Amino acid sequence: MTSPRRGWRERIEPGLYRVHTTKCPRSVDHRSGGRCSCPFSIVTPGTHAGTTRLVRHDGPVTAARAERRRLMAEGRPPPASPAHPENPSVRDLATQYLTTRDQILAPNTIANIATDYRLRIDPMLGAAQVQQLSRETIELFVARLVRTSTSRRMVVGTLASLRAILSAAVDWGYIDANPAARLRLPVPEHHETQSVERVLGRDELARLVQACHTLRIETLIRMGAEAGLRRGEVIGLRWDDVDLPARRVTVRRNVVQVRAVDKLERTTKGRRSRRVAISPSLAARLGEWFAESVVAGGAAATGPVWPGRDGGPMDAGSPRARHSRALRRAGLVDNDGRELVTFHGLRHTAGSSMLAAGVPLIVVSRQLGHASPHVTAQVYAHLLSDAQLDDAARVFDNPETTQTLRDTLRESSGDD
C-alpha cells in the first residue's frame, strides 16, 4: 500500500491529536498508540467567543497533556494587534489584508486577489506608500494594465482586487478615500468574439465525443456539453445524485480547489440545488460507466462519479486536461493552434444548442441553474441562429395583415 497524499490525524483524547506526517507508517495502517516522533496538535480557546486555535507541541504525550491543561487554565488569549507602520507600503497593506480577511472571505476570493496582487499590482505599485497614492497614480497604473493585459476581464478583476485592498486602508484609517473608486475603464470591443460565443456546433460536438477514448472521459465531457454543468459541479457530482431510470441528475455541490491539494465542497453558484435532465443516450453511457467503475472497478457506489486517484474528488485541472486532449485529437483547433472551446465553453455549447432548438428560455435557465431567465437572455440572446431572425422579417410579407402595436391597442380600446 502506498502512502496517501495527506497524513493522518490520530485522536488521542478530546482536544488532543497526533498529526502523523505522510511518511509516518501510522498514516498508512492507521494503528492507534504507535510510537513515532510526529507532533501533537492541541485545541484551545481562540481569541473570540465560539472560536478555537490549534497549538503545535513536539514533546511526549504527557507533556502535551500538561501543556493543554495550562493553556485551558489561561483561558482565551487577547486578540492579536500587530504593530503596523503609520504609512505602510502597498505591499505591507496587501499582506495585512490577506491575513485578516483569510477567515472571512471565500477561499477562491482570497486566492484570486492574491494572484492579481502578485502578478500585476505588486510589480507596479508594491513599493509605493499608501498615503502617497493619488488618483493620477492609479489611473496611470490602469492605463499601463490595459496596454499589457491579454483581456479586459483581467483588467476588471485586477482593478477590483486593488479596490478591495485600498478599501481596507480606508477602514483602518490609513487614508481618507479610496483612490481606486469609480474608475472608468475602456468600453469593451463588442465586435470581437466573446468567450460565450466560442461554442461547438452539432457536428463538432459529435467529433469531440468520438475522440474520447474512454467511457470516463466521454461521460465527463457530455455532462458539461449536454447537461450544462460547471466544472466544479462535474467534479462534485456523486453517484447518489444520479437517477438513471428517471434520467435526472441532482446538482448539489461545487468543489473548489484553492491550493495544490485542498479541495473544498461548496454550494452551487446559485446557492441552491437543481435537478437537471440528461438524454437517454447519456443515461445509458453513464450506466455503462457505473458498471465499469463501481461494479467491476470497486469504486464507492456513493462516491464521486469521476473520482480522483485517492477515491475522492478529482483535481480541478483534470477535466480541463482531458477535454484539451480530446479537442486536439478531434482537430478542433483554429489556424493559430488554439482550441475552439474551453471546458466552460461546453456549458455555453449546451445553452446555445437548447435555445437554437427552440427550448423555452425559462426551461434553459432552470437547466443551467441561472438565478433568473433574465441572466440566460443576457448571456445567450446573441447566440440564436441567424435564421431565426427571419421570424421577425416574415411579419412584413403580407402588408394587409401588418399592424403596429398602436393599431392593436386602438382596436382593443374601441371594443371596450
Describe how the helices and strands are arranged:
Blueprint: E1 9-13, E2 16-19, H1 26-29, E3 40-45, E4 52-57, H2 61-74, H3 90-101, H4 107-125, H5 135-148, H6 152-171, H7 202-210, H8 215-225, H9 231-236, E5 242-243, E6 248-251, E7 254-257, E8 263-266, E9 274-277, H10 280-296, H11 317-329, H12 343-356, H13 361-368, H14 373-380, H15 390-393, H16 405-415
Antiparallel strand pairs: 1-2, 2-3, 3-4, 5-6, 6-9, 7-8
Give structural notes.
The protein is α+β, with helices and mostly antiparallel strands. It has three domains: 9-74, no CATH class; 90-171, DNA polymerase, domain 1; 198-354, hpI Integrase, Chain A (Orthogonal Bundle). The chain has 16 helices and nine strands. It has a four-stranded antiparallel sheet with strand order 1-2-3-4, covered by helices on one side. A three-stranded antiparallel sheet has the order 5-6-9. Strand 1 (9-13) and strand 2 (16-19) form a beta hairpin. The longest helix is centred in the middle third of the chain and has 20 residues, at 152-171. The protein starts with 8 loop residues before the first strand and ends with a helix. Residues 1-5 have low confidence and may be disordered.
